[in-house]
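Still learning. Show one?

>
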Amino acid sequence: MSETLAYLQNVKATEALESDVRDAAEEISFYNPPTPTQGLRHRAVNGAVAEAITKIVMNTAPSPERSKAISALREARMWANAGIAQARDEDLSAAVIPRE
C-alpha cells in the first residue's frame, strides 16, 4: 500500500471518528425538557433524597462521615434523575408513577 493511500485512509478514519464524537457530544448536551411523568419522578427522587439528608443531619454529629453520606446521596440523586431523563415514559410503563 502506498504512503499516500495509507495517509488518506487515516484521514478518512479520523474524520469519521471526529464526526461520531461530535454526534455523541451533541446528544449528551441536548436538553430535553421533562415530560409531566418525568417531572413527577424527579420530584419523587428529590423528595426522598431530601428526607434522607434531613434524617442524617438530625441523627449524626458534624463529621467527615456525615459529609460523605450527604455527598453520596447527592450523587445518587444525580444518577437517578439522569436515568429518569434518559428513559422514555414507555420504558417505565411497568414502574409505579409517583403521586404528588
